[in-house]
Amino acid sequence: MKAQPRFGPAGTPVGVKGGTLEGIKYVASEKLDAFECQFVRGVKMKIYLAKEVGKVAKESNVLLSAHAPYFINLASEEKIKLKKSINWLIQTARISHSMGASNIVFHPAYYGKSKEHAVEITKEALRQTVREIRDEGIKDVFLAPETTGRQSQVGTLEEIISFCEEIDGVIPTVDFAHIHARTDGGLKTQADFANIFDLIEKRLGAEAIRNLHSHFTEVFFKKGNEKHHLVLGSNGPKFDLLAREIVERGISPTIISESPILDKDSLKMKVIFEKLLK
Ligand SMILES: [Zn+2]
């Protein structure tokens, strides 16, 4: 099959006046076809606007996803914080449902004192969150926890895969920059990218990589911790390695740019990819 990835930014492009709606229209005018709505500081969008956003995105063939708040910690020892974290996910699920965004991206948790314990509590919380979302009658959204970029965060590739294996309604988001940072620059060759796809395919099935949700940005890191995102062509990982792997596999992932220049790097990635296809 011919690879047909989707490209687009995490949020409204720099310099565009207005909010999500204007951002999506602008992205469509650039011939990009994905957009991750940012609820990273809270879910404040009104339902009527979410419906309008969904309508415009659908008409312009822009695939929507949503990034839930940063403050989520599903492994919190404090009951109130845990409840709040689950609620932020539920709020994001409601707004995503109204917009027609199926993937809810988020950083699941922090380890705290014990890694194993944190992972176990996170699983329990994920199960409960999916149950509550489905109980509200929302069947068309998925929790898509992302591979995280710091040693203190739950979210190695292995952990994310195990969540997806064990809990219905949970699918992976692969943030390549975060994997690169966490493994202290581990994504050096095309084979390093291939290993990620192989592992997901082996454990979650071919369907899981065909339309994989992902983030790609170059990244500055220190001692296995992400420091900040960078523009393409600065510090790696190199996008053309990922692009080659996608072409060879004939898969069609969504690739969200979180670079400081957002959509401009999406456009660059698209050009690199299209050159390879020829
Ligand atoms: Zn994120």
Describe this entry's structure for a reader:
With 278 residues, this protein is an alpha/beta fold. The protein has one domain: TIM Barrel. Helix content is 46%, strand content 17%. It contains ten helices and twelve strands. Helix 2 (47-59) links the parallel strand 2 and strand 3 (63-67). Helix 1 (20-29) packs parallel to helix 2 (47-59), helix 3 (79-99) packs across helix 4 (115-135) and helix 9 crosses helix 10. It is globular, with a radius of gyration of 18 Å. The chain starts with 5 loop residues before the first strand and ends with a helix. Zinc ion binds at residues 67, 105, 107, 146.
Task: State the end-to-end CA separation.
Answer: 15 Å
Overall body shape: globular
What CATH architecture would you give?
Alpha-Beta Barrel
* Helix residue percentage: 40-55%
The figure for the number of domains is 1
Strand order across the largest sheet: 1-12-9-8
| Annotation, overall tally of beta strands | 12
Write the layout of secondary structure elements.
Blueprint: E1 6-9, H1 20-29, E2 34-38, H2 47-59, E3 63-67, H3 79-99, E4 103-106, E5 109-110, H4 115-135, E6 142-145, E7 153-154, H5 157-166, E8 173-175, H6 176-182, H7 190-204, H8 206-210, E9 213-216, E10 218-222, E11 225-230, H9 239-249, E12 254-257, H10 263-277
Helix pairs in contact: 1-2, 2-3, 3-4, 5-7, 7-9, 9-10
